[in-house]
Amino acid sequence: AEHFQFTREGDTYVTTGDSSGRNTYSLSADGKTITHHEHAGVTAIIQSNGDLRWSHGYDSRIVSGGGGSATEEPSGGDGASLDRGGGGAVYTGDGKQGSVSYPYAPSGWLWGVSIAPDASYCLVGANYPHAGSPVPIYRIELDSGEMSNAVPSWGGSNPIGVAIAPNGTYALTTDTDRGRLAHIDLKTGQVTHPYTGLSHPTGVAISSSGRMALVDSGGSSVCRIDLDASGAQGKMTRDVFTGGRLSCDHTGFAFSPDESYALCANTARGTIARLDLRTNKCESSKYTGFRRVKGVAIAPSGHFALVCDLDGRRIGHIDLASGAVSFPYGNCFEQPFSVCFAPSGEFALFSCGVNGGPAERHKIGRIDFGGGGGGGTSRPSINTSLNGPLNDACRNTNDTNRIRQLVREGADLTSTNGAPWNHTGLHQASYHNRPEVVRVVVELAREQGLLTQMLNMGSNPCGRGGNGRPIDLASPFPEIQKVLREVGKIYSG
Predict the structure, then answer these.
(1) What would the pLDDT profile of 280-318 be if each residue is shown by its tens digit?
(2) Per mean pLDDT, which range of 54-63, 149-158, 375-384, 470-479 is the poorest?
(3) Three-state SS sequence of 310-358
(4) What does each C-alpha distance from 32 to 24, 50, 113, 309, 374 come to in angstroms?
(5) Which residues contact 264 (CB under 8 A, 6 or more apart)?
(6) Segment holding 493, helix H or strand E
(7) Do 184 and 190 meet the contact criterion of CB atoms below 8 Å apart?
(8) Beta carbons of 204 and 161 less than 8 angstroms apart
(9) What does the alpha-carbon distance between residue 399 and residue 313 come to, in Å, rounded to a whole number?
(10) Cis omega (within 30 of 0) on the bond before 129?
């Protein structure tokens, strides 16, 4: 690791490194990015906490802007830690003890999902202009749940695949019905189409260094794009991989952290293929045990991968050291399609729904792996027989002692009363105006590291608007709204 000292000189930043000479950077007009004067690919995004999201063409990581020494974070629920040694907090556990929720419910059929480098928002492709999808690409603020049209000037059709570049300045999306790949400037919203001549492209991924991308074409071919810093002037090579047969219509790709290989959803075969990026060899059935696969994502640690097993209605887990495949997260709300990790690896998002189903049958799921989520990670073993009594107690009583006892004995705070309501105990207490119950459930959720997840969980809004989050259900009750705003510090209205 090389250490750099940043200093401000007039309108520029200057660095001197342990083994590098003097380098000069310019500050963007909005004050959010610094860029090397000679090498446009060397950039750093200045995040709200002062940290820098650093990209220099070989790696991408977060470095502290506060001048402190590297520290190790507390252990996660599976004995994992968040390793800050040399480059940002990265979850290093095995990922088998994730907690699943469904905090966001955009309208329409949902396709690809990608998380921004600072994990403040995600982009979600929709089946626009078909199936009642009102916007082509949603932007969802992950803390507040606020949704907006990310690309009003889209001008394309059916953005199935979505990938945000690691420097956060642009995204690539498939313009599936028109056979091309769109480039979106995330600052200006400008859309261009630098990569054309594809046949029904459905999946796209960008490597962590930002140096290359993969996209499918024709349901059986994979193209590699060697990217420039802007992402708009790369060189595309078709039919790159040999040695194995692919059936990759409606697929997903994932790069390994060291960019030596990528995984590809071999959709019709129900397997995950391994694409060697050094030899261009394809192992078409590297990982098996799935029914029909769509999305795939590799954890930033490189320890495990997640797979959307569409027809199995479940998220699969691959131990990348042993090759073992398991399904530790239970059944999904509906069929999962696309999955992606936050840059820290602390959580993943996935889209799920059913083709032809109504809007409420499509949601964005979240898997929290530990080390985050609004507090500690002390959780008792789950006793599912207590979930119903917990939900009833939060809905019908103010008996906070009983609620505490049920949770101590293993009631799952994130459990719900099922479709079509999907209300947790926090939803129930918020809807039925039980402020003391809300305070206790919030306290217990914080202790278990579930607070952020539970504050953002959507549900049936029951006529009170929004996405059915607890604060939406509490809209008639100022006292509960105040409690939720104060403890979560994520709601602004």
Answers:
(1) 999 999 999 998 899 999 999 999 999 999 989 999 999
(2) 54-63
(3) CCCCEEEEEECCCCCEECCCCECCCEEEEEEECCCCCEEEEEEECCCCC
(4) 16, 10, 24, 39, 26
(5) 203, 214, 216, 222, 246, 248, 251, 252, 253, 272, 273, 274, 275, 296
(6) none
(7) yes
(8) yes
(9) 37
(10) yes
Measured distance CA(229)–CA(40) in Å, rounded: 6
Kindly give, in sequence order, each residue whose CB lies less than 8 Å from that of residue 448, ignoring residues fewer than 6 positions away: 375, 376, 377, 378, 379, 413
Q: Token pair of 247, please? A: 């059936």
**Number of Cβ atoms within 10 Å of the Cβ of 409:** 14
Q: How many residues does the chain have?
A: 493
| 464 within 8 A of 475, measured Cβ to Cβ | yes
Task: Quick: pLDDT tens for 122-145.
Answer: 999 988 766 566 789 999 999 888
The phi and psi torsions of 126 (rounded to 5 degrees) equal -125, 165
Angle in degrees, 0-180, between the axes of helices 435-447 and 478-488, rounded to the nearest 10: 10
What's the half-sphere exposure (Cβ side, CA atoms, 13 Å) at 244? 21
Per-residue model confidence (pLDDT) at position 370 = 63
Which has the closest alpha carbon to 429: 395, 475, 391? 395
The pLDDT confidence band at residue 268, using thresholds 50, 70 and 90, is confident
| DSSP state string for 457-483 | -----TTS-TT--HHHHTTT-HHHHHH
Nearest-5° angle of CA 163, CA 164, CA 168?
A: 170
Q: Are 444 and 453 in contact (CB under 8 A)?
A: no
The two three-digit tokens of residue 404, written as one number:
């505490």
Residues facing residue 225 across a β-bridge: 213, 236
Question: pLDDT tens, 233-253?
Answer: 999 999 999 888 888 878 899
3-state secondary structure of 298: strand
pLDDT recorded at residue 55: 58
Q: Which amino acid is at 475?
A: S
419: exposed, middle or buried (Cβ count in 10 Å: 0-12, 13-18, 19+): exposed
CA distance 296 to 270: 12
CA distance 137 to 123: 6
- pLDDT for res 371: 42
